[in-house]
Design goal:
- Belongs to the uracil-DNA glycosylase (UDG) superfamily. Type 4 (UDGa) family.
- The chain is α/β, with parallel strands linked by helices.
- It has a single domain, classed as Uracil-DNA glycosylase-like domain (Uracil-DNA Glycosylase, subunit E).
- The protein contains eight helices and seven strands, in the order αβααβββαβααββαα.
- The strands form two sheets. Strands 2-1-5-7-6 form a five-stranded mixed beta sheet.
- A hairpin with a 2-residue loop joins β6 and β7.
- α3 crosses α8 and α4 packs across α5.
- The protein starts with 23 loop residues before the first helix and ends with a helix.
Length: 217
């Protein structure tokens, strides 16, 4: 397996994936050494997905946040806690979900005081480079449904023309990385935390997740 960073004209995680049909544990170990794009240089660590290999639903977000980068697990910060609450309220068991991100390293810029790291959205090029990890997770987990959390995850899975406001709360059927998938797009929980009317935004997220729960019933 390659051990050096990918050249800038060939960003891709592909050389770092294990051969054959690896388990989630094998993928997680391999992803820890991924150098497929420059994001690994400043991040604390790779943040791979978490959950059962037999989960019925896969939740795909954008990228790790500050707390996720420090702890090495996805959705452990404020947005993750809000997502867990919304899942339960919508009738989805968080224990029966596999959670991951389209990009596995935290991309950020420093605040002026250099005491706080500010989230910076990944580019389409970076999302594409990380795509092989998400494709591998989809192959292993083979979920019945994918919940797409926010615009960045939507672009990574459905292309650059994706607009979350146009399709949120609907069940889509698409071929993703060579697999037929059912998907329910919704907003990223972090957008709920930033909303002026947080309760209204939260109820909108719960309503979308109820569509996902109904699709699984």
């Amino acid at each position: 397996m390659a051990t050096t960073s990918a050249p800038e004209d060939a960003y891709t995680a592909t050389p770092f994936l294990p051969a054959g049909r690896p388990s989630l544990a094998a993928l997680r170990r391999a992803a820890a050494g991924c150098r497929g794009c420059p994001l690994h240089r400043n991040a604390t660590q790779t943040v791979f997905g978490q959950g059962s290999a037999h989960a019925r639903v896969m939740l795909v977000g954008e990228q790790p946040g500050d707390q996720e980068d420090r702890q090495g697990e996805p959705f452990v910060g404020p947005a993750g806690r809000l997502l867990g609450k919304a899942l339960e309220e919508a009738g989805l068991d968080p224990a029966d979900a596999y959670v991951t991100n389209a990009v596995k390293h935290f991309k950020f810029t420093w605040a002026e005081t250099r005491k706080r790291r500010i989230h910076k959205p990944p580019t389409l090029r970076e999302m594409s480079a990380c795509g092989p990890w998400l494709a591998a997770e989809l192959t292993v987990v083979a979920p019945e449904l994918v919940v797409v959390l926010g615009a960045t995850a939507g672009k990574a899975l459905l292309g650059s023309s994706f607009r979350v406001g146009e399709v949120r709360g609907t069940v889509l059927e698409r071929e993703i990385h060579g697999r037929p998938e059912r998907l329910v797009p919704t907003v990223h929980p972090s957008s709920v935390l930033r909303a002026d009317d947080r309760e209204h935004a939260y109820q909108g997220l719960v309503a979308d997740l109820r569509v996902a729960a109904q699709a699984l019933s």
